[in-house]
Design goal:
Layout (H helix, E strand, L loop, with lengths): L2 E8 L1 E2 L1 E2 L9 E2 L4 H12 L15 E7 L4 E10 L13 E10 L8 E9 L4 H12 L8 E2 L6 E10 L3 E3 L5 E3 L3 E2 L3 E3 L12 E12 L2 E13 L5 E5 L3 E5 L4 E4 L4
Antiparallel strand pairs: 1-8, 1-10, 2-7, 3-4, 5-8, 6-7, 9-10, 11-18, 12-17, 13-16, 14-17, 15-16, 18-19
Length: about 260
């Protein structure tokens, strides 16, 4: 199994929770639909044209949080829109809370997500194009961001793991990606160093109905650590391992 990994790094992030219509709240990690947009920007796909080509039937995607994060609310001016005629700003503005993800120290810290990609039997062509873009030197076709366009992101540390393998265990282990909640059997009460756990569970949008249609057809309920450390858990079923004995990463793809 081949697994492509790369990091998305930026100062701030915002992945809007689509069901909050009067407060711009943010998911802590990019949903699969956002990752599809990132891949589409790397490949140069036009807007709303990639929902079928990058669907979970063709590419399996995973994501991990590599740095500690915090969330803070800021009040921003938005256009007050009550009808299509108000998009010119004639109704004035309204202030709404806007949730921003950042590191603990904004001057020094960054937000870093690791993306994992592997193809199914029908996704080999797109996967090959993605590998060429990430590793071939040409870089992304369009600029990348962590959610909104003004939160720009860099693509770093791209690697192709040719010998990814599956495994399973009844032991508590470290997992470097989000994990589906239904796969979790046991969570330790504290970390190995005695510190408390910093965990979140979120329901993330996964796939759209089809190209040009932003209606959801699947969701992912996942659990993950927000302190930049791997999630320690005992899981049921198989997982994927990449790397060697010096630095092994265990991950699960968004299902």
């Amino acid at each position: 199994m081949q697994v492509l990994t790369f990091d998305l790094v930026g100062k701030m992030a915002h992945f809007r929770k689509y069901y909050a219509n009067n407060t711009a709240m943010s998911f802590s990690v990019p949903p699969r639909t956002t990752l599809m947009g990132v891949l589409a920007a790397i490949l140069g796909f036009p807007r709303d044209s990639y929902y079928e080509a990058l669907a979970s039937e063709h590419l399996r995607l995973g994501v991990g949080l590599c740095t500690p994060i915090k969330k803070s609310f800021h009040r921003l001016n938005f256009l007050k829109v009550e009808s299509s005629r108000d998009l010119d700003g004639s109704k004035g503005h309204i202030q709404l809370p806007f949730e921003v993800i950042s590191g603990y120290d904004l001057a020094r810290d960054t937000v870093r997500y690791r993306v994992y990609v592997t193809p199914t039997a029908t996704g080999e062509v797109v996967f090959g194009q993605l590998v060429e873009r990430v590793l071939g030197g040409s870089g992304p076709h369009f600029a990348l961001s962590l959610g909104t366009a003004n939160f720009t992101a860099s693509l770093l540390d791209g690697q192709l793991h040719e010998q990814a393998r599956t495994g399973s265990s009844d032991e508590v282990q470290d997992f470097h990606s989000t994990v589906p909640t239904e796969r979790v059997v046991t969570l330790p009460v504290t970390r190995e160093d005695g510190g408390s756990l910093s965990l979140e569970e979120e329901l993330l949008p996964a796939d759209f109905v089809g190209d040009g249609q932003r209606e959801l057809r699947a969701m992912n309920r996942v659990l993950f650590s927000t302190d930049g450390q791997p999630l320690r858990a005992r899981l049921r079923g198989e997982y994927v391992e990449i790397g060697d004995g010096n630095e092994t990463q265990r991950l699960l793809f968004l299902e």
